[in-house]
Records
---
Amino acid sequence: MVFSPNELTSYLIIGAVLFSLGLLCVLTRRNAISVLMGVELILNSANINYVAFSHFGSGNLDGQIYAMFVIMLAAAEAAVGLAIVLAIFQLFHTIDVEAAQTLKE
Amino acid sequence: MDISTAVFYLIAIITVGSAAVVAFSPNIIYSAFSLLGTFAGVAGLYVFLGADFVAGVQVLIYVGGILVLILFAVMLTHRITDVEITNRAAGRIPGLLIVAVFLVLLVQSIRETPWVRVKEVAHQPTTARIGDLFLENYLLPFELASLVLLAAMIGAVVLSRKEIKD
């Protein structure tokens, strides 16, 4: 296996590494904003796979369209997620995800 | 090794390296800023894959929008002096173990799968064809996307406003 820009597997491996690092962020971080950063890494790795398969696999642009929908949803997710983080911060004065355990005041 | 391969290696190293900083840095400001390297590196990978419009969208939305939003949230929720202690990680050893096993499985399956390649696709501008697809085959998801963005905007405003207690 060669690691070059003309091989599908090199892009898939970069995507797999990004996904693993994002998963590690989500699993181990206790800061809510860091968890959201991990989610962004995971979404980016999925997008790399979409665009790589669109380029090497089918040759049409459907994968790029899906990648753009994922980017759109990531923007919406970031806006709502960070708004929730700010609301939690106002309530608990911390954004440690283990500290926010109650559902309602 | 020709120049494009060297640039590809550089972009891959920048992408994975800054993602590693995001995952391992004890300082959340460093994490947030190294997300910039990851997003820019992924945009470079899109250019290598002949997806010029997606690369532009990636730079505009991720680097220009989401990253600024994340930095905003970091600045709003932390006293800057506390920054070293606020990004702690729990259960790092078991997490690393699970993720390492998962990564090995992923890479092994990627290497062993016989991927089919249809043909050599020439790099050509994609913007016009993407616009056609958005207004023909993907018209309904495209319109739904605007509704989702509107709902997310209103939701973010409602969630983050100051609670007025009477």
Note: Residues 62-92 of chain A form the longest helix (31 residues).
---
Amino acid sequence: MTDAANEPATQVASAGQPDAVGVQADERHASLWSDAWRDMRRNPLFWICVGLIAVFLVMAAFPTLFTRADPEYCILSNARQAPSAAHLFGTDIQGCDVYARTIHGARASILVGLLATLATTTMGIIIGTISAYAGGWVDTLLSRVGEIFFAIPILLGGIVILYSLPMPDKQPLLLQVGKVVMAIAVLGWPSLARIMRSSVLQVKPNEYVQAARALGASPLRVITSHILPNALAPIIVVATINLGQYIALEATLSFLGIGLRPPAFSWGQAISQASGLGYIVNTPHMLLFPSLFLSLTVLSFIMLGEVVRDALDPKLR
Amino acid sequence: MIKYIIRRLLQMIPVFLGATFILYFLVYALPGDPWAGRCGDRECPPAYVEAFKREYNLNEPLLVRYALYMGRLLQGDLGRNFRGNYVIDELIARYPTTLKLALIALAWTAVIGITAGIIAALRKGRFIDHLITVSTLVVISIPVFVIGAMSQFAILKTGLTDIIAVTASAGTLQQLILPGIVLGSLSVAYIARLTRTTLVENLRADYVRTAKAKGLTRQRTIGIHALRNSLIPVITYLGFDFGSLMGGAIVTERIFNINGIGGFIFQSITARDGANVVGAVTILVMVYLLMNLIVDVLYGVLDPRISHD
């Protein structure tokens, strides 16, 4: 972050015209992030969230570090066993090891969360920046289109999209993840574009932007090296919170039987399988462990977003 | 004022048309045949496909099709499902249950959420404030279906099933209380946070200081001056929330086996009855848009600072 931010200042200086305004703005920007960093470093909540997220990311990338058991190796005669030494979290209705399935289930959930956040945030940044920078009819058009997509609740729209896409049996994991990500991206970008638009509108009238323009920098250069570094903070906060919410959304869609389907497995599916009064009373372990992992993941991303926001914007405290 | 309402209504029209167009486009123009899945697990026979194309004007260009579809939609015609019933009749039979559920959720949200928010704001920085803030975060992070299943578990284990029902297939008021609480749990957290934030902001405002300075009691300063102003965004959020509660009911109704619109959508997903899914979702989106419109207008009425020109 700081490297990218310092670059324009040195560029201007080496051009033989030390631009006091530009340097000052970049220093303020750097201190905004370093202030935030100093704040966060002292916050135990920040470290708890980061630690949990790290564990879940490693779990998604290398599930075999946590368990040697094969999540697909299920023995029907072992079905619905309570937790024991052989099956740490017990077994589910198919006789699969709940611990192995929970650990391996992290991958799909976190993949959906990360990719959906990446997609919506990228779309939000591009559309919001163009909207605010260009102004005029481009802004009006993009804002109106965004309003229309914003009017459809993500869960409802997601159900229609996923229902309309072909849903053959035994689709590979990546394709299924791609479908869910697409559904979230199509409906999720407008709120992020709005945030980006308003923060670019705040940065745009600053003198260093005017100065860069007066010096003849191209719009692309003005945006990438002067506007973006100073306008990204709000959208990063919201993106972090959204990441948690998208994971919960995937679980909800899978719970309804329309998100990820077998052979892919995720926490939402496991919870869906384990709910129902009979299972809840007799085999609560089938429900408890995936629920716990899911909730902890969502909580740590949302909490991290809040901690970052508090650090970036002390006014809110 | 009238002018303001009319302008909001007019602004709503393109959003409404756009949203329904997107839904229509998603269903009928995406790759994959719209009749896929309408014949159960088998392929549809050619005669059915022909009849289907004729009934839904699939041989016409997209915009013409959409216009025809809108015409039927405005007359309340959502097409017919697998069983040959009109989707709109299925929805009319089920909406009272969902409405009751949403109202219970809303009432619980308003009472608990606002109370918790006020307590947190007045004790800002103290233990109770941290407790409320952290617990709202936890509630926001736990998906509704987990909260639902856990509450069922707790009630079954403690043997309170005589007092609080854990399923609600009949949809009586007593049965709907627990599902209503579960459905509203997320909103309780949001409302508590919103109330806290706005109240904290308003308590710092100049007019509250003035009220204190002229010697008003603490109750009057907070109750009349700060609280009334803080509740404007909260009330509008509640209205906005009502629209999304109807959608959130899909998950809650599936957990508690409630035969409302949400449960209907879930059953139709499982049975792969596309006409039901799309029809019901379209109606829910329309309810959501309508609630947003009402909230917008209400906001203009409640907050004199909103320009009516």
Note: Residues 1-27 of chain A have pLDDT under 50 and may be disordered.
---
Amino acid sequence: MTFRKYLVLAGVTVFAAAGDSMLSYGMRQTGNISLDHLGSLVAAVLNPWIAGGIVLLLAFFASYMNALSWADLTYVLPATSLGYVLLALIARLALHEHVSPLRWLGIALISGGVTFVAGGPALTSHKPAGGTSDPFLAKAARSGAPTSEKVPAVTESTER
Amino acid sequence: MKHLYTWTAILLVTATSVIGDILIARAMKQVGDFHQLWRHEGVWIIVARVLSNRNFFLGVGAMTLAFFSLLFALSWGDVSLVAPAASSLTFIGTAFAAKIFLHEKVDGRRWIAALLVAAGVALLAG
């Protein structure tokens, strides 16, 4: 794991949290969307908070794709949940809102879970048994893109 | 009746999110490590490979479905149920799906993490 990769994971967390909160703030302004009035969907997308939220979620998506290009899904996904922790801490520290004991417990559980994953390897490397079992890894190798399968000997996850 | 709608929506959101995540994860592994590609072949090779990947578009489609079903679910149902239930179920569903479809090594460490995160999100997302 390089500094740049941690930065990408931080982007995943921050953009997801900021985008989600802008979106939910906007949704509270626009109110219900019903199947009968699809026009209300258009109106919702035109709301500045919702539009801003969508832009941030696109930024989240770019960092998410970046992270998934070098790490397992089960490694990256817990990082997205840190956003909830971030939001609760902002509510407590910046907005001086009350954070209930149950929410502190939620923060502890998520932080614990993320620590668990972060302590392990980021990528499962698949054994390159005489040409790899994954056609896409073989293709990537042919086209000169370095992949994890070049890690010798150890068959299971190696990259930290 | 409202309960049925709400839980149908929650399951729809969960299923489409899991499918989207799996497809995108697979697509990105097919594209290759962004950082390596960027350094050796430039940023455009990444764009070209992403845009020529079928799984990427299928994944984006599934995520778009997930996004709009969440919008609908949130406007119908109880927000304090829909948001935590859907996101928490997604973490567990993804762990299963990543093991089955992506052959990721989901060891004890990652199972515990998935369960802890799912529980934590259920408590926080409300």
Note: Residues 2-31 of chain B form the longest helix (30 residues).
